[in-house]
Specification:
Blueprint (H helix, E strand, L loop, with lengths): L9 E5 L4 H12 L3 E6 L7 E4 L2 E6 L2 H8 L3 E4 L3 H13 L4 E4 L6 H13 L3 E3 L5 E4 L3 E4 L8 E8 L2 H10 L5 E6 L10 H10 L5 E7 L4 H12 L4 E6 L23 H10 L3 E3 L2 H12 L29
Parallel strand pairs: 1-2, 1-5, 2-4, 5-6, 6-7, 10-11, 10-12, 12-13, 13-14
Antiparallel strand pairs: 3-4, 8-9, 8-11
Helix pairs in contact: 3-4, 5-9, 6-7, 7-8
């Protein structure tokens, strides 16, 4: 099994005919994703060639769903038009919308998140790398060649750290890796992913990556203590960040002890989570936890970083 995205998922791409949409649709198809259509009102009725196949373009999400049975949309629409694109997807009642676009105004994100919740559309993102269930499907910009199928579930605020931990743990593999995004307002949270991994019989261990700013990790720690029975290994980015300065993601601001990496680490450890000081140490904790269950030992040299050409954690998009 996998969470949110399986080999049966039928994916459409809003903004497929733009530069980023074209590039990553080709990547998704190469990973085995069932991309069944694109959406662009100006190019409805056309088809786009991708290597050995062509993909039809529809005028609306509703038309694409009716024609293909799509249940996932990946949004590569520029920030000024992202609110309308996600609202349209929610109005069509698509179950899952993966919003890759970065730079979406917060008030737009607040509006379309509320709209989507009222229509039972799960949003991942915005400003995220998407999600991948290796060997099954890939929706977004995560490189498909740095991990294999396995029994680790990964949820991360950071796209770059998603790639790093996927590479570090590539010899074990993953059920699903979910990049939830680090904007102040996101759809799917750490807690949502933790609950889904807890219910997934093919996930044995969960890796949770957080970062400074806000209290999402502290709330996740409370949830882990109350609801999660599977082992959880964590990493929090930002131990060297100066106080009172916005760092990286728009939501990553630290004031006093609130939102610091140390406070988050302490909260997670109090909930029984083993927290690494670096991505490599985090991977070592995973190997140690699984050492007695028949998993392979940690390779001698695995700290060089990904060898594939990975896309950035977020991308600007054009239609």
């Amino acid at each position: 099994m996998a969470i949110f995205l399986t080999g049966h998922s039928k994916v459409i791409v809003q903004g497929m005919t733009g530069a980023e949409g074209m590039k990553h649709t080709r990547r998704m198809l190469a990973a085995g994703t069932r991309v069944v259509g694109g959406v662009n009102p100006r190019k409805a009725g056309t088809r786009v060639a991708f290597d050995d196949r062509t993909v039809p373009v529809f005028g609306t999400v509703a038309e694409a769903m009716a024609a293909t049975g799509a249940d996932v949309t990946v949004v590569f629409v520029p920030p000024p038009h992202a609110k309308a694109a996600v609202t349209e997807a929610a109005d069509a009642r698509i179950p899952l919308a993966v919003v890759i676009t970065e730079g979406i105004p917060v008030h737009d994100a607040v509006a379309f998140q509320a709209h989507a919740r009222a229509r039972a559309t799960r949003i991942i993102g915005p400003n995220c790398p998407g999600l991948i269930s290796p060997g099954r499907s890939n929706a977004g910009i995560i490189p498909a060649d740095i991990a294999k199928p396995g029994r680790i579930g990964l949820v991360s605020k950071s796209g770059t750290l998603t790639y790093q931990l996927m590479y570090e743990l590539r010899d074990i593999g993953f059920s699903t890796c979910v990049g939830i995004g680090g904007d102040p307002v996101i759809g799917t949270t750490h807690i949502d992913a933790l609950a889904a991994f807890e219910a997934d019989p093919d996930t044995d261990l969960i890796v949770m990556i957080g970062e400074i700013g806000g209290d999402a990790e502290e709330r996740a720690a409370d949830f882990i203590r109350a609801e999660i029975t599977k082992p959880v290994v964590g990493y929090v980015a930002g131990f060297t960040a100066p106080e009172g300065r916005t760092m990286g993601h728009a939501g990553a601001i630290v004031s006093g002890s609130l939102g610091t990496a140390r406070a988050k680490k302490e909260a997670l450890e109090a909930a029984g989570v083993r927290v690494g000081a670096t991505p490599t140490e985090t991977a070592e904790l995973v190997f140690a936890l699984l050492a007695d269950t028949g998993y392979p030992p940690r390779p001698a040299a695995v700290t060089e970083g990904p060898t594939s050409t990975a896309p950035p954690a977020t991308c600007s998009t054009t239609v």
